[in-house]
Structure formats: structure tokens, C-alpha cells
Amino acid sequence: MRRHLTASPQCLIDFARQLRLWGQADEDEDIIENFNSYSDTDSASNSEDDQSVEDDSHYSTDEMEVDMEVVQDFIEDLQEIPYLPSAHSEDPQASLLGEEGPGPQTAANRLKRQAQAYLLDDNDETRYVLQHQDAGQVIAHKPAPGLLCREGYVDDLHDEDRMMDGTYEPGYAPFTSKLDWEVARWAIKTDPGKNGLDRLLQIPGVVEKLGLSFHNSRALYKRLDVIKNKAGEWKTSRLRFNDNDDEEFIVRHRDPLEAIKSLWQDPFLSPKMVFKPVRVYTDKSMTQRIYSEMWTGKWWEFLQKRVRKGGTVCPVIIATDKTQLTQFIGGKSAYPVYLTIGNIPRSIRRKPSAGACILIAYLSVEKVKERPGMTETEQRSKVQRVFHEAMRTVLSPLIDAGQNGVEMAGSDGAVREVFPILTCYVADYPEQCLVACCKYGTCPKCTVTATQLGDTAEYPLRTQKATEKVMKEAREAVADEPDERKRNRNYYTLCMEQDVAGGVWKPFWVGFP
User: Fold this and answer.
1) Residue span of the structural domain in which 483 resides
2) Of 97, 132, 167, which marks where a domain is finished?
3) Quick one: which of 40, 167, 217, 239 has the fewest CB in 10 Å?
4) Separation between Cα atoms, residue 270 and residue 411, nearest integer Å
5) CB-based contact 66:16 (threshold 8 Å)
6) Helix, strand, or coil here: 266?
7) Quick check: is 181 in a domain?
8) Which residues have a Cβ under 8 Å from the Cβ of 357 and sit 6 or more positions away?
């Protein structure tokens, strides 16, 4: 690899830019700090000819410059990784075939080397990157939030929980030392069982010699309860409707802003986040643009112009999926709501082990009670209303925060003014129709009718304004009807004639920025 990059300077530059752009060199501080020291010798001669068809006044390429010596040092360090094929072997196939020997172990090693080898092509596209200058500005600095949380737990503990000198080992509260924390971590991760852990801790001298702050499993879980919830406390909301006051729908949820803040200051996720829109082109001619992550799209760039100067856009992504838990004992089900943000790279965001998706709510799964004379259409409409009222209850804190902004501190203590904007909703087709308030069987993304789904022609996109307009006109048309049930039926009919769900009078997303 080092031989290839040394012989091909362009690949070396591309490799360094990828490290800078996607955050793969986070552990090597020298690379990040020295990017600004490199200057492209051709940039001065070509600066007058490079003109974008778009407004580039807020974009800069300064942060994408590279220190060649630092990158070469980094590549030399890669040579120490054992699974990299040797570029100096006398046998050119030796690095791929591995050592001779029987058994599957040799084949496994060979496949591992082939799969994990770093390959670069001289024909790879040259990325030309423009970063927004005004977005994502740091407005203040605070102590690292993670340290503040740990110190905050100490006040909730008793004096006898402190170390012999009356203090705690820094960074491990509510546990008294690193060893105390490691034993607790082992007990939770390994899960030896309540009885197994109790028998271990009952061995004479174990608690005393290890200096543990708990003597049984009950004391361990009591200590864990002192730790504040990562994404806020859970609360319960109850929904009732005028047609049946005795019917109640329970929603368990927590503040989505607290969930976003927990992601924002996560020590693993925060250093990899992106806070400003980026334009990526194939080369300096800027004739062909590349779209990959959310911050490379035009939407982020468009929205950045509508927030305060220096503000940080936070695209909020919501996902729901009603899940059947049991089949034979009552048909139990759950309706979880998950939240993540578009500032996190998708390669990290989609990994369950990264913890980038946070559970923020459980929607109601109670069945709508049938009452005398209730039609199937009225029952379906009630289900739609329950969903939208529940989602508005869960996500309503995002309305004010998205309009006025809220200060958030990262894991490094850098404070930014963040505007969380509800951006994406991940769901299967039935839930897409439910969220978009479109007639089931039609397209939730465009206005094509159910009978024309096979057409190759393009149809106008389905928009919030168009859906709200249909609902508003239907409400005005039935406003003079005194009978509530008849009014609802007429409203339902008028909406369905235009492929809009007639069971919802006010979608949950109305009023969101």
C-alpha cells in the first residue's frame, strides 16, 4: 500500500482527503491539525477558471488541505498492522496465498487477508469538496458533559460509599474505583444470575479485598438506579376522545430533545458528527456533484440559509414498526418509536452496536372499543386519530426547538446553537400511508392514483401543503353539519375522493418547521 501511494501522489491526496472528510483519522490528531498547512500548487493557476454554477460564497476548501508528510507517517504506521499484505515480498502471490499448510485455518487466514487488504486504484475519482463557512459555529465552551454527569452522581451517595480517604476515584461514580466499576460491568454484561452473583459476593473476603461498594445483587441494582437515564425520564400520557370518555389510550414516552442531547454529547458519536453542509464534486470543474451522506444534499444547504447565521441543522430521523410479541397467548404487541439524527454518518448510524438510535416512545396498542352502531370505517378512522395524536404528544417538543434553536454541548464541551428539524420517517408501506395521510393503495410519495401505479409517467410529488389544503377544504364544507357522526362521514368521503385519508382532521406533522 505504501509503495502504491508513494508512486501515485494523486491517490495519496485522495486517501488523505477521505480520512479528513469521513473522520477515519480521529485517533491521529496530527493529521487533523496539519491539514491546513498543505497547499495545492495548481490551485493558484486554476482559481480563476473554477466557477460553480451555484452560489459558493459561503463555502470554502481551506479545511480540506493536506499535510503530505503527516499522511506518509500515517501510512507507515499502517504497515505495522499484521493482516496487511507485504508489498516487499519476493513472491508477489505470497501476500495473498499465505503460508502453505493443511487444514481450514490456512484458507481462513488467506481469505481474511484478501478481504481486509487496502486497495487503491489510480483511476479513482478525485473529490473536490466545498464546506459551508458559516454553519456549525461554536458559540461557547463548557466542561465535558460526561464528566459533569459523573460528578453529579456523587451527591446522591452516602458517606459510607466513599473511599477510605473520603473521595471517589474520578470518572467512576457512583462506583468508588475502576475495579469496583469493572466488577459491576462484568456482572451486568456477563449476567451470572442473581443467585450466582450473590454466592460469589458471599465468599468471605471477596467484597473487602476487592473494595466493592455492593455486597449483593440488590445493592448493585440499587446503585445503578442512581445513574441518571441517558435520554431523559419516562412519563405516561393518556389520550381520550369526545366520542367515548371511558376509552383511554396510554402512551409511554420521553423528551426527544433529551434523546438528541444524549447523542450530541456521546463520547463515541460526537467526534464523528458533521455540523455543516458540504458540496462534493468529482473534480475542480464542479460539473458533476456527488451525493452520499445527508450533509451532501441540497436540502441541508437549502435549510441552512433559513436558520440563524452560525446555527447547526440537526435532521431528526424517526422510525416506527408495530411488532407482534406473542401469537398464542393474547396476541401481545408493541409499537416502539426510535429516534436518530442525520449528523451521524450512516455507516455508524445503522449499526445497532453504535447506540445511535434511541427508543423514545411506546405508542398505544389498545384496540378501539366497538360501540353500538359503530361502522368499520369509523373504527379505522379512530385508529388513525389515535396514532397522530400520540405522535404529536411525543414529538411536540421539537416544534419550538426547531423554530428557535437550542444550545447543545458536544463531548468536547463545544456549545452550538442546534435546530432539530423533523426530516425523515422510516416505516413500511402501511405506516407510510398512515403518516402521509394518503388513501391506502395509493403512492405515499406522489399523487398517482391507485389505478395508474403501473404508469411510467412522472406525477407531482405529494406535499404537506397539498394534503393540508384538501383537509381544510373538506372541513369547511362540512362545518355547518350539526350531527357529528354525519359530519365525520361527509369529511371522510370528501378526503377519500382526493386520495387523502379521511380519518385524520389534523396530522401530527402540522406546525413542524
Assistant:
1) 440-513
2) 132
3) 167
4) 6
5) yes
6) coil
7) yes
8) 319, 338, 339, 340, 349
Assigned domain for 45 exists: yes
Instruction: Please compute the mean of the pLDDT values over residues 126-148 and round it to a whole number.
Output: 79
Task: Decide if 281 contacts 289 (C-beta within 8 A).
Answer: yes
The answer to whether 364 touches 240, Cβ cutoff 8 Å, is no
* Alpha carbon distance 275, 277 (integer Å): 7
Residue 162 belongs to some domain of the structure: yes
* Residues 244 and 218: beta-carbon distance below 8 Å: no
The label of the residue with cell 503530505 reads 68
**CA pair distance 243, 332, nearest whole angstrom:** 26
- Count helices and strands in the chain by DSSP H and E runs: 20, 14
**Residues 97 and 161 occupy one common structural domain:** no
Q: Mind listing the pLDDT tens digit for each residue in 378-397?
A: 889 999 999 999 999 999 99
Together in a domain, 76 and 182: no
Both 106 and 29 in a single domain?
Answer: yes
- Assign residue 307 a region (left: φ > 0; alpha: ψ between -120 and 50; beta: otherwise): beta
Judge whether 393 lies within some domain. no
Residues 23 and 125 in one domain: yes
pLDDT for position 329: 62
What nine digits make up the cell of 327? 401469537
Check whether residue 14 and residue 125 sit in a common domain.
yes
- pLDDT at residue 478, rounded to an integer: 93
Same domain, 169 and 122: no
Query: How far is residue 420's CA from residue 260's CA, in Å, rounded to a whole number?
Result: 8
DSSP per-residue string spanning 355-379:
T-SEEEEE---PPPPP-TT--HHHH
Statement to judge: residues 18 and 94 lie in one domain: yes
Q: Cell triple for residue 88?
A: 516487499
Per-residue pLDDT of 324-350, as tens digits, reads 776 666 667 889 999 999 999 999 998
DSSP per-residue codes, 267-329: TTTGGG---S-EEEESSTT--SEE--SGGGSHHHHHHHTTS-TT-EEEEEEEEE--EE--SSS
Question: Which of the listed residues 132, 165, 196 is the one where a domain comes to its end?
Answer: 132
For the record, the C-alpha cell of 439 comes out as 388513501
Quick one: 128 and 163 in the same domain? Answer: no
Question: How do strand 128-132 and strand 138-141 relate by DSSP bridges?
Answer: unpaired
* Number of domains comprising the chain: 3
Query: Cell 486504484 belongs to which residue?
Result: 121
